[in-house]
């Protein structure tokens, strides 16, 4: 494009205007993130979705052992499981375990976490002490409880020393106390770790909320449950779901190490029944049928907990 300019002597001169800048090209979004996620997606599909689908497939088979011939059973395994009184004993024990261990653990852990979040003297040391049970291996925890609850263990010895020897019992071998001992182990093993999680979350709540509530006359108890709890309600739901899953699926190792499901079926849980039928009774079809029912129970429990603890605003 040519333009006219005026020179100092008044004459006109032709000049060329600077070229117009090209229109900016449209940027395409980068696709690198999707490529980087492919290995993780493949890993998830192979080692998470694959075993989950295998559970449903094996539940429809008649498979009496790893090296035995396999045949299609259809719904026969479901009928066998539902007609088995051992299964219903395991359902009852698991329901009692969840109904006692999870609420007690969450409530006590929240109160401990609130106390630590107030930064009392020595609160750093308290955090480490609460976290110690989470650092101990499961066999070591079982040995601690076995040493305390065996007929000649610490609990009976303490009862004898204070003149209450009549209350001594074989706690792990008694049908009336075996399941209670396992529930106590679940609570002891998980309450400290959960309290540390709550303390970390409560530490991010602004101090002004608690100070304003106390200026209005609220004590620590009311401040804890009426102010801090609603603020972290969604986080409490997440922690509750984690502890629910751990208690539902992880209790088998405690049962295996301490009671073997006995005496009789007094401490048999659903997760231990899956192990028992698969590796002791060599009935893989029965075992994975219970596994499918356990999976469905866990799914319903998660949805229920999420609905209960969802925020109201």
UniProtKB/TrEMBL annotation:
Annotated Gene3D superfamilies: MetI-like
Predominant localisation class: membrane
Compositional bias annotation for Low complexity: 8-26
TM helices/strands, residue ranges: 35-61, 95-116, 128-149, 177-200, 235-258, 278-305
Residue ranges occupied by any ABC transmembrane type-1 domain in the UniProt entry: 91-305
UniProt-listed PROSITE patterns: ABC_TM1
Compartments, record wording: Cell membrane
Region annotation (Disordered) ranges: 1-30
Protein name as catalogued: Carbohydrate ABC transporter permease
Organism: Streptomyces lienomycini
């Amino acid at each position: 494009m040519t333009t006219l300019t005026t020179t100092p002597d008044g004459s006109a001169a032709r000049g060329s205007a600077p070229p117009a800048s090209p229109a900016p090209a449209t940027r395409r979004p980068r696709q690198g993130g999707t490529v980087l996620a492919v290995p993780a997606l493949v890993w998830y599909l192979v080692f998470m979705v694959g075993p989950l689908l295998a559970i449903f497939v094996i539940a429809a088979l008649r498979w009496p052992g790893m090296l035995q011939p396999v045949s299609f059973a259809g719904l026969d395994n479901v009928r066998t499981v539902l007609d088995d009184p051992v299964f219903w004993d395991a359902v009852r024990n698991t329901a009692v375990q969840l109904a006692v261990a999870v609420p007690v653990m969450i409530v006590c852990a929240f109160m401990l976490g609130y106390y630590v979040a107030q930064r009392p003297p020595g609160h750093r040391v308290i955090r480490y002490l609460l976290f110690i049970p989470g650092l101990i291996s499961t066999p070591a925890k079982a040995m601690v409880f076995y040493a305390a609850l065996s007929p000649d263990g610490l609990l009976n010895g303490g009862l004898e020393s204070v003149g209450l020897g009549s209350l001594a019992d074989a706690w792990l071998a008694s049908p009336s106390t075996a399941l209670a001992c396992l529930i106590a182990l679940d609570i002891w093993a998980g309450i400290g770790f959960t309290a540390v999680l709550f303390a970390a979350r409560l530490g991010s709540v602004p101090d002004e909320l608690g100070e304003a509530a106390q200026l209005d006359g609220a004590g620590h108890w009311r401040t804890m449950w009426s102010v801090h709890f609603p603020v972290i309600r969604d986080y409490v739901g997440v922690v509750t779901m984690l502890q629910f899953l751990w208690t539902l699926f992880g209790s088998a190792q405690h049962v295996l190490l301490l009671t073997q499901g006995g005496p009789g079926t007094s401490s048999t849980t659903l997760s231990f029944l899956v192990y028992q039928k698969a590796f002791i009774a060599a009935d893989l079809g029965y075992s994975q049928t219970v596994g499918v029912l356990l999976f469905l129970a866990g799914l319903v429990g998660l949805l229920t907990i999420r609905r209960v603890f969802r925020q109201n605003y």
